[in-house]
Amino acid sequence: MQSSRRFPTLSALAAAVTAAALVGGCSAGFDATSIKPYAPADGVMASSGDLQVLNALVVAADGADEGLVSMVVVNRGSQDDRVTDITTPSGSVAVSGDDELLAGGSLAFGATGTTATVSGLDRSPGQQITLKVAFARAEPVTLRTVVVQATDEYASLTPSPSPTPTPTESETATESPSPSES
User: Fold this and answer.
1) Quick one: fold of 36-154?
2) Per-residue pLDDT tens digits for 40-93
3) Burial of residue 178, with CB atoms counted within 10 A of its CB: 0-12 exposed, 13-18 middle, 19 or more buried
4) Where are the domains of the chain?
5) Which residues pair with 54 in a beta bridge?
């Protein structure tokens, strides 16, 4: 008779443990990490209205005082916008190329096309950097991202070197007669 009393007790205990495990999985509620947007890449992302900045980071060679902003800005809205400025307290940013964000389109910043070069960069690869991206219509976004080493997949994303002036024929030295020859 003793074994017949254990079976309902064990069944009730097993059901309680199973229910606790199932209900416990839902305890994260609406703030679960799995429902939060994240950037599955080295860079970070941010949103401003219909605009999204994706995979934003700065690429620089070790010891370099220049870096290149790499990111994509997506316009999911029905109105055109444009990037008006990119700033950082870690240097000065020069933007060149197309800055238009067509409705439903995107704008990539990299080594070609639209570029944003950080001069006077006071950060090294592995350090954090703050970027502020301003738009004509949408509110600006501030991103805390990272400077990555210009190697591997980022090796081609370095600022274009400044052109080195080459001497012209008029600048080359010409022999002048020595004082004793005159």
Assistant:
1) Immunoglobulin-like (2.60.40)
2) 667 788 989 999 999 999 999 888 899 999 999 999 999 999 999 999 999 999
3) exposed
4) 2-29, 36-154
5) 72
